[in-house]
Prior knowledge:
This protein is of the alpha/beta class. Helix content is 45%, strand content 18%.
Amino acid sequence: MRLASILKRTSLIAMAAHLLVPSMTAHAQSDTYPSRPIQIVVPYAAGGITDQSSRIISEALARALKQPVVIENRPGGGGRIGANAVARMEPDGYRLLLTTNGTHTYMAVTEESLPYDPLEDFTPISLLASYGFLMVANPAVPANNVKELIDYAKKNPGKLSYASSGPGGGPHFAGEVFKYMADIDMLHVPYKGTGPGLLAVAAGHTDIVFAGEAKPFIDSEKVKFLGTTSASRDPRYPEKPTIGESGLEGYDLTSWIGLYGPRVLPEEIQKKLSEAVSYAMQDPAVRERLSTLGLVPVGNSPEELVDHIKAETAKLRTVADNVPSLVQK
């Protein structure tokens, strides 16, 4: 009887110790984090505005965290492939996701069977920056502003095409909402990123693209500027009107870039990463470099990022309800 009691007590102690191991391990990991290089997955092709900004931000985070921060591009599916991969990675803080609202609000509205939950499958860290897409066209397109483009499209239905980073992403949303509000017909041509789409427009394979990284192409006159998707003008082109100002009143789509970890990232690691982002975003050199890309630096808290996602998703869902072509079945 006594032996049975001792064995039972020993078993309970062993069980309790076993249950404590995961939390003790997580705590130990967060105490030493980071102790090796961190990899940030960008779910878009190299060369796009998300990729360009990720290089600037990763350098700043490396200084703040005192560890190398490496970028890995995983393009495809408008960003859903890379985002879905990170959602299923080990939540140890060494694999993160730097993405746009394309994967976290636009697709939440346009996809009926998104393979991940934008809120439940990720740990929010910070909204890094906001920006508007630049609507640009191949020089051969017979229109020099939004009003002229709409007039031309109405007279030539289906003749114009626009490139995007893939179905459901921000550029696709921008194009479909533009079509709906202008009451015109344009062919959607998806690519693996806005960078490749921009190259296609410059080469004349497609006519129009909504891309944040179009500045070098505009300045070299490989494409022509038609307008900005956000309600405010691009800081690099203060003299250039927005789409809403130049022929489509009420048009307003603002994009942003955010940083996430996989779900159930330890709170201590989330806090360290959030603090590192805040430190990086206060660096004048980082802010200046981001502004040259047309980005407005933010660097807010995880809670503010979640609130922003919820509010924007509700707004976009109302828009999508009026634009049936946006919903992917």
